[in-house]
């Protein structure tokens, strides 16, 4: 369970989401994000685009699962809208969009995904739930420290990203052959490691900034 740093976290995020995450974002990452807002926004845009791509990939791979097709189609459209919104906000601030190398976070989780279905699909969905839940938590942690415009935008994203976390977790439970608690616990441990251990590169989902 995450220890609350202030009332804003509790007001913005449901208890279930906070309980799902194994740890809070370190204050060191918050400080790095505030000091690197250009990189934060560029990588945020990139993350939205990747999230849409992941949803589309699942749609193409699992064409025989109508519920998954519907949920992933909705998610992809929403993530692309968010991408457009971030790019527009960047343009208004004179920040050009450019490619950034990926953080270790998503690959660090996905390297543990099983190769064969149905466990592969379940693992992919659990990983998606962690990515979306962590995004929510980071938006909420940043909001009290941001300018009014960016804080308002991130506040609007908290609700939608929270729905995405819920959808991924619901689908994982729906398509599993049995209980998924042990796999959630496994990925929670991996997620904690990625968030709390030193990370050389700052990104939206990076870990604790390494001390030079």
UniProtKB/TrEMBL annotation:
Name by which UniProt lists this protein: tRNA-(Ms[2]io[6]A)-hydroxylase
Domain of life (superkingdom): Bacteria
InterPro entries associated with the record: Ferritin-like, Ferritin-like_SF, tRNA-Hydrxlase_MiaE
PANTHER family xrefs: TRNA 2-(METHYLSULFANYL)-N(6)-ISOPENTENYLADENOSINE(37) HYDROXYLASE (PTHR42637:SF1), TRNA-(MS[2]IO[6]A)-HYDROXYLASE (PTHR42637)
